[in-house]
């Protein structure tokens, strides 16, 4: 599809990738509308208390910082190596981008994309939208960029990503991801028994925070459950460029293998039952650990078993790569870093707008047009 044939480009999701893709499209002269069911950076805001492993320079695009420097010439930006929390990243970068002159009129917040379908002639897309009041709307686009991500679709705790017995009813009482254990949620975990499920960095962050809490609140106890083989739960990467990630892995591995911090580690464990018994009784957990039956009665459960890509709003249709693109974590949910998205955005938008993908490059003194 040649640039002159494209009249309407729809972006689903106003997270980091959606905002960056929309901005790059506008810089390349393409008309864009962004549909977001929540707010800008909705899920970044939800895990906003977490400090990112990746530095500022990894999480901003060349074109994004160039636009901000032009619109806010007197503003001071974080240093290239600075590690921001999610809240800081949203406040310092995503919100200013969304409010810049190129994008502010292209955002439709509080607008959920319910379904998309192809027009009768197959040359364009029709979008069924629903606003915050439940009112439905129709829109059209020639190209769709699906940047809806994965964070709205947590995986189940049972074996094979199936719900354990009782888990469907218990799910509203189980937080997913990194909980603010040492901040606003402290009272919910102090002097409690907590089951943490998962073997990645989110689980490790929770375990380390609970162990820190246990230094002051001695009745706090953590049961760390993973399906991983015996040994250290997190790999240590040789010369890991992300130093905070390596520090977290070292601390979590020590807690797991030494039993410090009131932490008990259970590898090779599968959960068969996760039943919620009420606010006072907590949860009953049953499963198998290294081939033996195990069970716990705990006050809290935290799930850190990852997310699955949200179903395609175009499911059931013959989706053409030339008019429907999936960008961001939804395209590679297990290994995604924000920096991975920049080249893909340039590739896709460059193809649509007929501009070279190297139009923007990082200069040593900042982000400038090449």
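^ structure tokens above, recovered residues below v
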């Amino acid at each position: 599809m040649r640039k002159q044939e494209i009249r309407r480009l729809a972006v689903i999701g106003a997270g980091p990738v959606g905002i960056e893709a929309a901005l790059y499209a506008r810089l390349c002269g393409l008309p864009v509308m962004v549909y977001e069911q929540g707010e800008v950076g909705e899920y970044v805001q939800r895990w906003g208390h977490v400090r990112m492993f990746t530095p500022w320079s990894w999480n901003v695009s060349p074109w994004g910082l160039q636009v901000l420097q032009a619109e806010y010439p007197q503003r001071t930006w974080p240093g290239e190596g600075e590690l921001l929390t999610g809240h800081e990243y949203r406040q310092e970068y995503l919100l200013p981008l969304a409010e810049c002159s190129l994008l502010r009129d292209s955002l439709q917040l509080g607008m959920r994309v319910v379904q998309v379908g192809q027009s009768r002639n197959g040359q364009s897309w029709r979008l069924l939208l629903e606003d915050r009041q439940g009112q439905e709307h129709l829109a059209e686009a020639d190209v769709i960029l699906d940047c809806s991500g994965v964070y709205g679709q947590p995986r189940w705790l049972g074996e094979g990503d199936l719900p354990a017995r009782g888990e469907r009813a218990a799910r509203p009482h189980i937080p997913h991801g990194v909980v603010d254990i040492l901040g606003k949620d402290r009272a919910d975990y102090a002097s409690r028994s907590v089951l943490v499920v998962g073997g990645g960095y989110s689980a490790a962050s929770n375990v380390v925070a609970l162990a820190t809490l246990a230094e002051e609140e001695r009745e706090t106890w953590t049961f760390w459950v993973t399906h991983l083989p015996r040994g250290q739960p997190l790999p240590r990467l040789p010369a890991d460029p992300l130093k905070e990630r390596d520090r977290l892995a070292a601390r979590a591995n020590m807690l797991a293998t030494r039993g410090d911090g009131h932490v008990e580690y259970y590898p090779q464990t599968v959960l068969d039952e996760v039943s919620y018994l009420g606010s006072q009784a907590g949860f009953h957990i049953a499963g198998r650990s290294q081939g033996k039956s195990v069970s716990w009665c705990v006050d809290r459960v935290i799930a850190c078993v990852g997310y699955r890509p949200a179903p395609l709003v175009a499911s059931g249709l013959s989706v053409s790569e030339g008019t429907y693109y999936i960008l961001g974590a939804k395209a590679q949910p297990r290994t995604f870093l924000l920096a991975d998205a920049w080249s893909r955005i340039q590739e896709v938008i460059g193809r649509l707008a007929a501009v070279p993908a190297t139009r923007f490059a990082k200069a040593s003194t900042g982000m400038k047009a090449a």
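The domain at 3-152+308-369 is CATH 3.50.50.60 (FAD/NAD(P)-binding domain).
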